[in-house]
Amino acid sequence: MPSAPLKVAVLASGRGSNLAALIDAHGRGELPVEFALAGSDKADAGALRLAEAAGIATLALDPRSYPDRRAFDLDLFAHIAASGADLLVLAGFMRILDGEALAPWVGRMVNIHPSLLPKYRGLHTHRRALEAGDAEHGASVHYVTAELDGGPVIAQARIAIGAGEDEHRLAQRLLPLEHRLLPAVVGLIADGRLQLEGHRVTLDGSHLPSPLQWDETRGLLPS
Ligand code: GRF
Q: Do 183 and 20 contact (CB within 8 A), yes or no?
């Protein structure tokens, strides 16, 4: 008998194009998951409207209704646990998470970040890559730990930075790659192929010495 599909919860604060990419991959039969919940810290997030349209249960919690960050995060994680989610995907969730609140989810939570981590944790990654004169830029999917954008990196997608590129265009060119990278990584997790063991990522039971690299024709490849 086939095992039950992985139950996935997604958190997003904004437009939700990465959530849409997951929904689309699932709709094409390429992502064997069940969406348990889409949550946000912004009731008006586009991501919630996309989830509703896809028939996914939604949750909006307002951080201003809680005494502090930890209280908000604990309630958020309680809702996610109650949804039955096995995996939590942060797809543009623009909040720092409390280390103690997130601890039970370490190894079951991934984030997509628009830089080639460990470069440019935090905000304004496209601008910072341009200002540094980098020849390439990219996106990373990593396991989430208490260290902001600092957990073990699973996979990356890269683009060359063109002459005269600006921040907006760079972000725009990177986004379609994010939309392929994230479902590909979630797919590996859904297939039971990826694990976090301590601070090491394993693929098919073997330690991954460096992040997988996204190839537009061949998908995720060892580097
Ligand atoms: C993406 O660039 C993602 O990498 C970053 O936030 C952005 C979210 O965009 N973490 P969207 O809401 O998925 O369209």
A: no
Dist. CA 3 → ligand 1 center (Å): 31
Report the C-alpha gap between 161 and 164 in whole angstroms. Answer: 9
pLDDT in tens, the chain (223 residues): 457 999 999 999 999 999 999 999 999 999 999 999 999 999 999 999 999 999 999 999 999 999 999 999 999 999 999 999 999 999 999 999 999 999 999 999 999 999 999 999 999 999 999 999 999 999 999 999 999 999 999 999 999 999 999 999 999 999 999 999 999 999 999 999 999 999 999 999 999 999 999 999 999 999 9
Asked whether the beta carbons of 112 and 140 are under 8 A apart, the reply is yes
Give the closest residue (by CA) to ligand 1 atom 1: 92
Pocket of ligand 1 contains residue 18 by CB under 6 Å? yes
Q: Does pTM top 0.85 for this prediction?
A: yes
